[in-house]
Amino acid sequence: xxxxxxxxxxxxxxxxxxxxxxxxxxxxxxxxxxxxxxxxxxxxxxxxxxxxxxxxxxxxxxxxxxxxxxxxxxxxxxxxxxxxxxxxxxxxxxxxxxxxxxxxxxxxxxxxxxxxxxxxxxxxxxxxxxxxxxxxxxxxxxxxxxxxxxxxxxxxxxxxxxxxxxxxxxxxxxxxxxxxxxxxxxxxxxxxxxxxxxxxxxxxxxxxxxxxxxxxxxxxxxxxxxxxxx
Amino acid sequence: xxxxxxxxxxxxxxxxxxxxxxxxxxxxxxxxxxxxxxxxxxxxxxxxxxxxxxxxxxxxxxxxxxxxxxxxxxxxxxxxxxxxxxxxxxxxxxxxxxxxxxxxxxxxxxxxxxxxxxxxxxxxxxxxxxxxxxxxxxxxxxxxxxxxxxxxxxxxxxxxxxxxxxxxxxxxxxxxxxxxxxxxxxxxxxxxxxxxxxxxxxxxxxxxxxxxxxxxxxxxxxxxxxxxxxxxxxxxxxxxxxxxxxxxxxxxxxxxxxxxxxxxxxxxxxxxxxxxxxxxxxxxxxxxxxxxxxxxxxxxxxxxxxxxxxxxxxxxxxxxxxxxxxxxxxxxxxxxxxxxxxxxxxxxxxxxxxxxxxxxxxxxxxxxxxxxxxxxxxxxxxxxxxxxxxxxxxxxxxxxxxxxxxxxxxxxxxxxxxxxxxxxxxxxxxxxxxxxxxxxxxxxxxxxxxxxxxxxxxxxxxxxxxxxxxxxxxxxxxxxxxxxxxxxxxxxxxxxxxxxxxxxxxxxxxxxxxxxxxxxxxxxxxxxxxxxxxxxxxxxxxxxxxxxxxxxxxxxxxxxxxxxxxxxxxxxxxxxxxxxxxxxxxxxxxxxxxxxxxxxxxxxxxxxxxxxxxxxxxxxxxxxxxxxxxxxxxxxxxxxxxxxxxxxxxxxxxxxxxxxxxxxxxxxxxxxxxxxxxxxxxxxxxxxxxxxxxxxxxxxxxxxxxxxxxxxxxxxxxxxxxxxxxxxxxxxxxxxxxxxxxxxxxxxxxxxxxxxxxxxxxxxxxxxxxxxxxxxxxxxxxxxxxxxxxxxxxxxxxxxxxxxxxxxxxxxxxxxxxxxxxxxxxxxxxxxxxxxxxxxxxxxxxxxxxxxxxxxxxxxxxxxxxxxxxxxxxxxxxxxxxxxxxxxxxxxxxxxxxxxxxxxxxxxx
Lengths: 230, 909
Hints:
The complex is a heterodimer of chains A (230) and B (909).
Chain A: E1 6-10, H1 14-26, E2 30-34, H2 37-47, E3 51-54, H3 63-73, E4 77-82, H4 87-96, E5 100-103, H5 108-124, E6 131-134, E7 137-140, E8 145-148, E9 151-153, H6 157-168, E10 173-175, H7 176-184, H8 192-206, E11 216-219, E12 223-226
Parallel strand pairs in A: 1-2, 1-3, 3-4, 4-5
Antiparallel strand pairs in A: 6-7, 7-8, 8-9, 10-12, 11-12
Chain B: H1 3-8, H2 13-22, E1 28-33, H3 40-53, E2 58-62, H4 69-75, E3 79-80, E4 84-88, E5 91-95, H5 98-104, E6 108-111, H6 127-136, E7 140-146, H7 154-161, H8 171-176, E8 179-183, H9 187-195, H10 206-212, H11 215-243, E9 256-259, H12 266-280, E10 284-290, H13 299-314, E11 318-323, H14 327-338, E12 342-347, H15 352-358, H16 361-368, E13 373-378, H17 383-386, H18 397-400, H19 403-427, H20 437-447, H21 449-467, H22 479-528, H23 532-547, E14 550-557, E15 560-567, H24 575-587, E16 591-592, E17 604-610, E18 613-621, H25 634-698, H26 703-733, E19 742-744, H27 746-756, H28 758-761, E20 766-769, E21 777-779, H29 781-798, E22 805-811, E23 817-822, H30 830-841, H31 853-867, E24 870-875, E25 883-889, H32 897-908
Parallel strand pairs in B: 1-7, 1-8, 2-3, 2-6, 6-7, 9-10, 9-12, 10-11, 12-13, 20-22
Antiparallel strand pairs in B: 4-5, 14-15, 14-18, 16-17, 17-18, 19-21, 22-23, 23-25, 24-25
């Protein structure tokens, strides 16, 4: 699936550009790189990459603003790769339209997995499917049913809505705000307690060990992610 | 005070203030007697024993038993302070050891004889001042006093006992006492006791006291004592009522004003006013009207005037000074402004002629005071003390005028005579007498009244000698001309007086203007001062110039007062002056010459006050040892002190703000640097760690090579943790860390922490133990996450490499939560464990222990503090090995889970 994936690396540090080119090409991806936001936008228009790996600390423009401009110019998935690790930066980037956020230093394998997830997600967005599969859990969006190893799991409507939302974007972080908005409505965007309580209920029904969750993964201060490979 | 307070039913602010003042102060109980020997000390000691049996810490500060056996017996069983021995005039006097009492801090101290005068050189001249300081320190006091020692009653007592009491106590001491106990025996019994020798009386006083102890006197004294106590109780009840704004019998809108001057009989007038005000339960004002006469007062008169003003203030009056052209006008203006209903004035016996010429203050007051009652105290008796004022006193130098001025006056008259002679000859002017008014007016306006009168007399004589026939004799032939001569003399004198008075008014106005200009200039100079040193110099220079005195300013430096400036230059203060300055600074009250405290000092020290105490001290001294400040300068001194205080406060605030701003700027700069370096380090570090991982995968290296690579990877990860911690530390050090709490599920927090630290943990087992139904907690997710990372990291460093790490969350009995991370390492000795966090939180010892543990612990402590969590280091506990670091989440931060579940479920339904 990742074969021939076109990736644009945007970072002003030549060493990390060289390193990323090495590992991405080893994973059979086509790599272009840019050292500034201006150059990146030119290359996006010319090369039409499927994934953009974006550093937030660019010399000519703030990375957070660049996310919006890339979104406007291209359907490419955006993966932020930054040394900034505050929850606030992450939420801002994700809300601005970034697909994922990885902090430096990073684990190479994890980065590759995140790139593939982001790319897959872009491809899937085109059509709505009736059912999704995450590990041994199957979600039937039309029948509002969740099956684990073929056996139906009884979920309340909110639990189902939340799990479906996570399952539509496997491997991708959804911020607290995004989840609360789509499941409880805009009026409850701040009611984080609802989300915590419902996640806990879901874990009790779906996780192998609810106190050591591996399916619904927490990003402290940012949101939740449905693990692509639990 | 007035009816308005009653109407709106609100507590009177004065009464509330008085109550507030009493809080935190020790309680004073006064044992009041009518005469010596009634048994006050005995009663006080009995009471003290009761208190002691009740468990109170009772100490005898000073008790005079007068060798009465029963009394002496009662002192046994109580701790007695040794007295301070003060050598004076070849004798050894013993006094209360005030400092010992303040240092010992008993609950209750017994100090006999409230009215006692301390030996010269003591801190306070009077014992009641010692007692006030003890009360201020929060220590209760029992004391005794006889009624004739009360300031406002001393003259009444003297009027029938013929014994003038020298040692007096301000009435307010009694009025502010929390309890008064009357020690009362009948006069007959007291006389019996005297006869039986039970009352110790020194030989030399036996006769006087024999007279004193007459039955009539004792009855009168007894009545006074009872009435006084009743009055005080009455007043306290009234104050209570006012503080609670209960409806009650109210004092009417009466207000008493007493006029004060330097007349020796002044104290009698003041006491009369005090009694009147007390009787009416009215506030009273002591008013000194400043007229032209004030400029001519001798130092002795000034001193007396200050004494009178002080006495009035001691007795509870509001003291005011107001300038006016005449005393009567000043009193009337004040009466009208303050709506006084009672005016008290003293009246010296003066001749009818004097009053006819100068007018009588009393007459004017009676004629023109609208609606106010005028009380006149006759001052005949007091005149014996210092001679009647105003009439028989020797005219002062200023009033007589200098010889040169008289010579000038005579020269002018001579010149006028010459000119008149020429005019009479040349123009044949018949009457030149009017010409002589010229020198009189000139001299009066220039030199004042005395030379002008000389000029008037000389003019009359010269006119007679040169122009009235027979010429060149002093005889006058024509009866008509006798009249001309007399009229000239009279007109001359009247003109001289009129002109001179105008001049005095102008001088007075000029004086005021000069004072105002001085103050304005002073305030400008002060406002220009940009640091405390130059401000201190400016204050000294201006105060010295304006008051014609020496001035020093002392400011606190390194915890003690130091000389900051002086004018004229002065570098050493005597020991007693130092003590006075220190006292004035600590107590924010004046001390030194002319003040109540350390009156024996050469200098007067005035505190430069801000809202929260003294900022420094202004010292005033005079080179020739005269009084430092005169009564008429008081307003100027106050104004200078006020302005200097305000300026000093302003500077202090500015300096503090500048210092804080500089500190903040430096912190910000350092924080920004750390943060930028931290972030810049991360990108190359990402390349390093990534490359190592890639190398490990691609290259087939030997066992040695693999070991080296693993080492590299470990070190790179450590650098990563260090950078994270450095960044966290820089956030902590920037102070005021923003904490954004949100509901956190500890299950999530534990999982994220372990996942993020997976590489550092290697293959180590982490046991997670969180109950299913644990409530959520309001925590900052990032700060808490970093706390857990550091806890795990620390545990990994200290644990046995193969041993497990345990993360546990538990509900506490108080409704809070406890999060513990325990390693299974060798553990720490309890005393080290207890101190561990403090040491690292203080930034000490950060290079001790395993690499980087200091920074980690400091961050745990700092972040936990910011979120409101407590941190403790505990040995494993429950017989378990290792060390546990425990974060305690207080109940206030725990969210009731049931409510949240219900709401989320309700939404779901």
